[in-house]
Amino acid sequence: MIVYDDKKNAAEELVRRHHYNRPEVMRHQQEIRARYEKDIRQYQDLTKAKVENREQRLMLYAEIKVLGWCLGRDERNVLKDINTPRD
User: Fold this and answer.
1) For a tag site, which of 23, 55, 58, 62 has the least CB within 10 Å?
2) What are the boundaries of each domain within the chain?
3) Number of helical H runs and strand E runs in the chain
């Protein structure tokens, strides 16, 4: 553990470490598309299930819409994709 004499140096060091070691990076279009397709399949599976899973469906629905937005898809097309059966 590193001990600093003043808070300013400690804060700067934490910011520097976070900046260089953060796991968040831009995703490629292929990754976004794959996640979009996977989430749509999972959402459709949840809608067919006979158990109460409303919270899961809402979370997936929101993620699908965001991923669709990242792909540049219109909201109508995203809804169409969600409601089109996939095998």
Assistant:
1) 23
2) 28-87
3) 4, 0
